């Protein structure tokens, strides 16, 4: 007789391939629509997608690719990239998505560090491949995501030999069974965006990928459903597009891929023609979409929700989406090391009983942890801080889709089993977390902390400000004081004094920035985050007017 100590249920491993198999078997006719690099719209079904992913798995096997081997991708959001996700991870190799917006040297560093044996790339990245190939001697083949004719047309002058994806998979019939891997085997590899130092790799497992997809699809997380048409604007080369390529097949949702055209007009047109109900992306993308919509005086006819994350969603953006367009904003926080989802701003039954103003205040925060992530904020003395909504501290997380150690690094980043996120946050009595800063971005004025994000949000809530960053400037009396660097909208006339007056009454007096400077643009990382490090370097010698006043 079996011991009653153990449950008696099947022990089927949690595998990435099972996500696509599920969609293909149970939602086989549901569509995947892509705007292609070739310029046209491509559409097919989950069933077609699985067949081609299996053809790719057969092709990789024929090339001699072994389990655990890393295979790189340099590609936009599209159906062939999705086939790479599942064909590579499904056959037991590791799908390593690379951010093509990084500097070529960094891309080469990442490919070399990951030891990628093959790299699949969209034809737009031919020039990048040409630059980096000599620095990547271990890559056995560069495979362009297109057919031979198209490659002949677009990449004929490349000196690097290029294989055709369509020719490669065309040699196989898709009669293939996904192997029963150990669920702890590696599935996907993503490198951090590397605002400081070299990028570091987060190596996900099949188990973490599937658990994260379950978590992402929960109603109080992204809340995906088979009745949705989801357009991920967040790139598939940035933390697996926040898990959408896994969560969408898990629920059988229609997928709409925008390819390389992420301007307001292209996104808007695709959303309208494909009946998109759900989208996800960083604030900068939404800024250009909202600008386009305002200029054209158009509205969404099907979009009901959008996830905004990657950096703080300005409250002004949240208001425009909700009040002017009737689109629910789900503010999300996470990081590469967390697969990436951690928290989402979804109101509980109890929170929904409160006044609209209180609800809005909660929605502006990064939100509640989803099951699978635990979090705490810790003070300078290493002790956990109370969940009072005001105590700032270093944010720590743990859970089955949180990193244990970085790829090919021995030292563990964990502290007592918790991962230090590098973010500074508060948690309120509702369990809503709010990021106030990156730990190195926090402004310490007279020993007290000032949140640069709060001040940036106030600056961008001014109708004439397009974008703003708040950095610390050295101050003889207070050690540091806040400086706002603002980019104005075209034809704006606001002055320094008017912008400073805009802060009055919105924050404590001592939080009001000491100065404002106007800039043409702000530096951003390859994933659209403000590059505060560069900005601080740029303004390192900036002397605040208050620093020269005899104010002691
Ligand atoms: P990445 O690994 O490139 O996704 O970057 C993760 C970092 O982005 C986090 O540690 C945060 O500093 C920042 N981040 C992500 N989402 C948000 C958000 N909603 N609000 C503020 N910061 C965010």
From TrEMBL:
SUPFAM superfamilies to which the protein is assigned, alphabetical: Acetyl-CoA synthetase-like
Keywords from the UniProt entry: Fatty acid metabolism, Ligase, Lipid metabolism
Molecular-function annotations in GO: ligase activity
A Gene Ontology biological process term: fatty acid metabolic process
Ligase is among the record's keywords: yes
Keyword Ligase: yes
Domain AMP-dependent synthetase/ligase: 23-407
Residue ranges of every copy of the AMP-binding enzyme C-terminal domain listed in the record: 455-529
Domain of life: Bacteria
Similarity annotation: Belongs to the ATP-dependent AMP-binding enzyme family.
Name under which the protein is recorded: Putative medium-chain-fatty-acid-CoA ligase
Native species: Caballeronia insecticola
Organism classification: Bacteria, Pseudomonadati, Pseudomonadota, Betaproteobacteria, Burkholderiales
């Amino acid at each position: 007789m079996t011991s009653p100590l153990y449950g008696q249920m099947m022990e089927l491993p949690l595998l990435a391939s099972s996500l696509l198999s599920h969609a293909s078997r149970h939602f086989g006719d549901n569509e995947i629509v892509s705007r292609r690099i070739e310029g046209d719209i491509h559409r097919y079904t989950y069933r077609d997608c699985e067949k081609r992913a299996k053809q790719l798995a057969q092709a990789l096997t024929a090339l001699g690719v072994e389990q655990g081997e890393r295979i790189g991708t340099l590609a936009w959001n599209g159906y062939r990239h999705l086939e790479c996700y599942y064909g590579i991870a499904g056959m037991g190799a590791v799908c390593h998505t690379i951010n093509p917006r990084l500097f070529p040297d960094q891309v080469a560093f990442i490919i070399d560090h990951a030891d990628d044996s093959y790299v699949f790339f969209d034809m737009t990245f031919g020039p990048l491949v040409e630059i980096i190939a000599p620095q990547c001697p271990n890559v056995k083949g560069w495979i362009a995501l297109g057919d031979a004719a198209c490659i002949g047309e677009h990449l004929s002058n490349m000196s690097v030999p290029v294989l055709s994806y369509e020719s490669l998979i065309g040699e196989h019939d898709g009669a293939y069974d996904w192997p029963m891997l150990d669920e702890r085997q590696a599935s996907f590899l993503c490198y951090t965006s590397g605002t400081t130092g070299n990028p570091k790799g987060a190596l996900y497992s099949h188990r973490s990928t599937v658990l994260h997809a379950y978590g992402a699809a929960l109603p109080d997380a992204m809340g995906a459903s088979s009745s949705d048409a989801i357009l991920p604007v967040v790139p598939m080369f940035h933390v697996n597009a926040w898990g959408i390529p896994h969560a969408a097949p898990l629920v059988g949702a229609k997928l709409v891929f925008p390819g390389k055209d992420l301007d307001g007009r292209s996104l808007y047109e695709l959303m309208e023609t494909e009946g998109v109900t759900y989208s996800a992306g960083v604030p900068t993308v939404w800024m250009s979409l909202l600008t386009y919509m305002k200029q054209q005086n158009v509205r969404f006819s099907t979009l009901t929700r959008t996830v905004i994350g990657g950096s703080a969603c300005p409250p002004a953006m949240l208001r425009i989406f909700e009040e002017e367009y009737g689109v629910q904003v789900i503010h999300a926080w996470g990081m590469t090391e967390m697969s990436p989802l951690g928290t989402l701003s979804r109101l509980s039954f109890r929170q929904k009983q409160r006044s609209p103003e209180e609800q809005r205040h909660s929605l502006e925060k990064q939100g509640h942890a989803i099951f699978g992530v635990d979090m705490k904020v810790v003070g300078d003395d290493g002790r956990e801080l109370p969940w009072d909504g005001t105590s700032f501290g270093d944010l720590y997380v743990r859970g089955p889709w949180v990193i244990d150690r970085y790829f090919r690094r021995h030292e563990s980043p964990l502290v007592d089993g918790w991962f230090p996120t590098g973010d500074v946050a508060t948690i309120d009595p509702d369990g809503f977390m709010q990021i106030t800063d990156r730990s190195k971005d926090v402004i310490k004025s007279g020993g007290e902390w000032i949140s640069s994000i709060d001040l940036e949000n106030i600056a961008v809530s001014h109708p004439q400000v397009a974008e703003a960053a708040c950095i610390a400037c050295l101050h003889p009396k207070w050690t540091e004081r806040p400086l706002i660097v603002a980019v104005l909208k075209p034809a704006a006339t606001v002055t320094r004094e008017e912008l400073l007056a805009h802060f009055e009454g919105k924050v404590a007096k001592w939080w009001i920035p000491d100065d404002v400077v106007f800039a043409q643009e702000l530096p951003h990382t390859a994933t659209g985050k403000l590059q505060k490090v560069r900005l601080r370097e740029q303004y390192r010698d900036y002397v605040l007017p208050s620093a020269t006043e005899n104010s002691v």
